[in-house]
Design goal:
The complex is a heterodimer of chains A (374) and B (268).
Chain A (H helix, E strand, L loop, with lengths): L1 H4 L14 H6 L4 H17 L8 H26 L7 H18 L4 H26 L3 H24 L3 E2 L2 H4 L4 H7 L1 E2 L1 H9 L20 E2 H19 L1 H11 L1 H6 L4 H27 L2 E2 L6 H11 L11 H20 L6 H25 L3
Antiparallel strand pairs in A: 1-4, 2-3
Helix pairs in contact in A: 3-16, 3-17, 4-11, 4-12, 4-14, 4-15, 4-16, 5-6, 5-7, 5-14, 5-15, 6-7, 6-14, 9-14, 11-12, 11-14, 12-14, 15-16, 16-17
Chain B lengths: L4 H4 L4 E12 L2 E12 L3 E6 L5 H8 L7 E6 L2 E2 L5 H7 L1 E4 L11 H5 L6 E4 L2 E4 L1 H14 L16 H14 L4 E5 L7 H16 L3 E6 L2 H7 L2 E6 L2 E7 L5 H8 L3 H10 L4
Parallel strand pairs in B: 3-10, 3-11, 6-9, 9-10
Antiparallel strand pairs in B: 1-2, 1-4, 4-5, 7-8, 11-12
Classes of the chains: A mainly alpha (374), B alpha/beta (268).
Chain lengths: 374, 268
């Protein structure tokens, strides 16, 4: 044994040196970066003349992508922490309805309705997480139950109070409300007007809005998406808590043995996912001026698909917020791009399935290269 | 490599476990196990499967509360409510398959639960530069050359993973290191590396409890040997007082293995 003591080989001859380029490429986001490049090339070739890349067209698919990004960030962090939330879509419907009912039907000020809804949703998220931890059941089952419970409650609440499943008139009551503006407003409107005045971007040539730019500004929805991505990315990769998220999903027992508060981490990620769903719901309600009981249908799967395209491992412990955001962009661009390209809309699902499959195969390969999994 | 035993008489006792009993409902897992551990000693805990080795070390590391018996840590009576209490006191446990998270980088694993932070604009961030630096240095000390500290633990061999886990425990101030079958899943060369690491750690004055059912691994590094059988201590022997054959027979409960001895040719 004394021979092996202090003379480690200077390098292992079986480990090939990796070139810097290859190392830079080997990232969890690689699959989704390829996906983004591919879909842009595809639509640039097929739909260039359709207006997809005009300011209004860009705004169209950017907004859809931003919607996906907002819920994907929450789903991504939760998935890395080793759990799922299938109740995201129902949570979007529930929180939108809550805001509309409280503000329009009950006459509360909009800012109060939004704050109360956020508290309620985050509390439901915490309860979801608590149930998963306490019962030890798979989060898949627990949150599947909440998918039905929240959707049912949403429809019931809407019908019982107003006899309708769509509640309008939110825009009118939200006029001048500053919290409502955080979700439904637009920024940089001056800049866009100025660009329109100089003829750099399209303006309306007729009608009451003559002279105003077609794209008035950047909707807050997109600002939220950007802020959440930056926050999620920093939290995951640059903080102590981020390390705990990885550890909780990678191996909860091993993490507990070294003192990581796994239960707290998981419950907080359920709360964050609910928060993200509530952000999207608030922005939608402010944008449409109404809430519908069926809003957010299937959004949980869209979020999970975005996250998986982004390179996260379904069983937890591995993934990237940037990747999830890129996955959401792929999703958004494909969904809107097929419309611009004039393709039959039912083919969207075929396209999506193919992309999902390709991304997962590529991601699995990349992940094995990085982590040495067999 | 092994210190003379006379020298050890002056060394302080790290842990003393007296008459530990543990009952799980009607099952008596431990019925009076005693063991003491000196600083700088490698105390091997041997026993066949089901002898109670794991239950016993779990009472030492705060996972189980003993049903009866006393634990003294550095001379003071101790009762750990949670594993975290034992870790804070300086008792670290390296579990065979739960040591590391393969999907995470070596640095992230090394500092898991003890992340260094640095404040930037009032927000505390994980100090990656410092963490990477320390990890590289500690790994070098243990004889592992990492390609980069971002390398996932999954790319390391089983022996290297155990070594990283041991290095981690030592870096964060363990005075007592409990190793739960660190060599049972390893090849010959990796086993040698882990045993060399155990030796290095012991020479730093850390008390090591080394659980194994491989007598040869125990003989390679052990200063004392305690054999457990069916929840009881069969006895403790010092190095040089006992032959590998005697140890082997004790572990197997005496005569049963004697009949097999000829066919196995002493290779177990």
């Amino acid at each position: 044994m004394s021979q092996t003591d202090n003379t480690p080989p200077t390098s292992d001859e079986r480990v090939k040196d990796m070139s810097g380029f290859r190392k830079a490429l080997l990232r969890p986001e690689l699959g989704s970066i390829c996906g983004v490049i591919l879909v842009f090339i595809f639509f640039f070739l097929t739909a260039r003349d359709s207006g997809m890349f005009s300011p209004a067209g860009v705004m169209n698919w950017s907004i859809v992508s931003a919607q996906f990004i907002i819920i994907a960030v929450g789903a991504c962090l939760l998935m890395i922490a080793g759990e799922f939330d299938l109740s995201v879509g129902s949570m979007i419907g529930f929180s939108g309805m809550s805001i509309a009912l409280l503000s329009v039907s009950f006459g509360w000020p909009v800012w109060l309705a939004i704050i109360v809804t956020f508290v309620l949703c985050v509390a439901i998220g915490a309860f979801n997480g608590w149930l998963v931890i306490k019962t030890g059941l798979p989060s898949f089952i627990v949150t599947l139950a909440f998918l039905f419970i929240l959707r049912g409650l949403t429809i019931f609440a809407a019908i019982a109070t107003t006899r309708k499943t769509i509640i309008g008139g939110v825009r009118e009551v939200a006029e001048g409300d500053w919290i409502a503006a955080i979700f439904g407003g637009k920024i940089l409107t001056g800049l866009f007007q100025w660009m329109g005045d100089h003829g750099w971007i399209e303006t309306f040539v007729r009608g009451t809005r003559e002279g105003q730019p077609v794209v008035e500004g950047i909707p807050m929805l997109m600002v939220w998406a950007l802020v959440l991505v930056i926050f999620g990315h920093l939290l995951l990769t640059k903080t102590k808590f981020g390390n705990w998220i990885f550890a909780s999903g990678g191996d909860a027992q091993a993490a507990r043995y070294v003192g990581v508060p796994v239960n707290r981490v998981k419950i907080m990620m359920f709360m964050f996912t609910a928060f993200c769903a509530c952000v999207l719901a608030s922005a939608q309600v402010m944008e449409f001026g109404s809430a519908g009981a069926d809003r957010g249908l299937l959004k949980e799967f869209e979020a999970i698909i975005s996250v998986v395209i982004g390179g996260a491992l379904l069983t937890g412990g591995y993934g990237s917020v940037i990747g999830a955001a890129l996955g959401a962009i792929v999703f958004g661009v494909v969904q809107q791009g097929l419309f611009f390209a004039g393709v039959e809309s039912s083919l969207f699902r075929v396209f999506l399935g193919v992309i999902l499959l390709l991304a997962v195969i590529l991601n699995t390969y990349i992940r094995r290269m990085i982590t040495g999994e067999k | 490599m092994v210190k003379p035993l006379i020298e050890m008489q002056n060394v302080k006792t790290m842990i003393e476990m007296k008459g530990i009993e543990k009952h799980f409902g009607s099952v008596i897992a431990l019925s009076g196990v005693s063991l003491d551990l000196m600083a700088g000693e490698c105390h091997c805990l041997l026993g066949d499967n089901g002898a109670g080795k794991s239950t016993f070390i779990k009472t030492m590391s705060g996972v189980h509360k003993p049903s009866a018996g006393e634990i003294f840590f550095e001379g003071k009576p101790m009762s750990f409510a949670r594993p975290r209490d034992a870790i804070v006191a300086g008792i670290a446990t390296v579990y065979q398959d739960l040591a590391m998270i393969p999907l995470m980088s070596v640095t992230r694993n090394f500092f898991m639960g003890n992340e260094p932070t640095r404040k930037i604009a009032g927000i505390s961030f994980f100090d990656h530069a410092y963490a990477n630096d320390v990890t590289m240095k500690e790994m070098k000390k243990m004889g592992i050359n990492l390609r980069s500290p971002d390398q996932a633990v999954g790319t390391l061999s089983g022996g290297e993973r155990q070594t990283v886990a041991i290095a981690r425990a030592v870096h964060f101030g363990a005075k007592v290191l409990i190793l739960d079958e660190p060599t049972s899943a390893l090849g010959v060369r990796q086993t040698a590396n882990v045993l060399a690491t155990v030796d290095r750690v012991r020479n730093q004055g850390i008390g090591v409890v080394f659980i194994t059912h491989n007598v040869r691994h125990a003989m390679a590094v052990g200063d004392r040997f305690t054999v457990l059988d069916r929840g009881k201590t069969l006895g403790t022997a010092k190095r040089g007082e006992i032959t590998p054959e005697e140890l082997q027979n004790m572990m197997a409960g005496g005569q049963k293995l004697a009949t097999l001895e000829s066919s196995l040719g002493g290779t177990v």
